[in-house]
Write a structure and sequence with these properties.
By secondary structure, the chain is an alpha/beta fold. It is built from six helices and six strands, in the order βαβαβαβαβααβ. It has a six-stranded parallel sheet with strand order 1-2-3-4-5-6. It is globular.
């Protein structure tokens, strides 16, 4: 079994507080941590600061235990921002990136998946507005297959 959880810097955590939470979770033997879908580069927890702080913890834990926790960094942004953020995560030894598919769209995901050297976790934030009204006609199974075709490796689901 894979055990995963979510960290929410958007509630006001800075990069070090986020890394401290990651440290607690690695000590609890967590397998997967998903970054906050609400912000990729918020004012309290800028992306680069978070990536460096979190990867220090994950890499230290991996060196001591042999287990590298998968952390899905939210790199949602413009094409260029996502590429730069992906490259930083890859350079730091990260094992996963995440993007909010309804924010970046089909072209954004295609561009990211063509560039990515890491697994891509897709977040479905915004799915509610596509699915609550039956007249829209969206089915999660079909919708998720479109994203898989665009290069998504795994998805956030309820």
């Amino acid at each position: 079994a894979v055990i995963g959880t979510i960290i929410k810097p958007s509630v006001g955590l800075n990069a070090q507080e986020t890394a401290d939470m990651v440290h607690t979770l690695t000590q609890a033997n967590i397998d997967f941590i998903k970054d906050d879908e609400l912000q990729a580069n918020g004012p309290a927890c800028p992306f680069e600061d978070r990536a460096y702080a979190v990867m220090r913890v994950i890499n230290d834990h991996a060196e001591k235990t042999g287990k590298k926790v998968m952390y899905a960094f939210n790199i949602t942004g413009t094409h260029d921002q996502m590429r730069r953020r992906h490259d930083l995560v890859h350079h730091l030894g990260g094992t996963c990136v995440m993007a909010s598919v309804n924010s970046i769209g089909w072209a954004g995901m295609l561009g990211l998946s063509e560039h990515s050297q890491l697994p891509i976790h897709a977040h479905r934030n915004g799915w509610g507005y596509l699915s609550r009204c039956p007249e829209l006609g969206f089915d999660y199974v079909a919708w998720s297959k479109f994203w898989r075709l665009a290069g998504v490796d795994h998805m956030h689901v309820n």
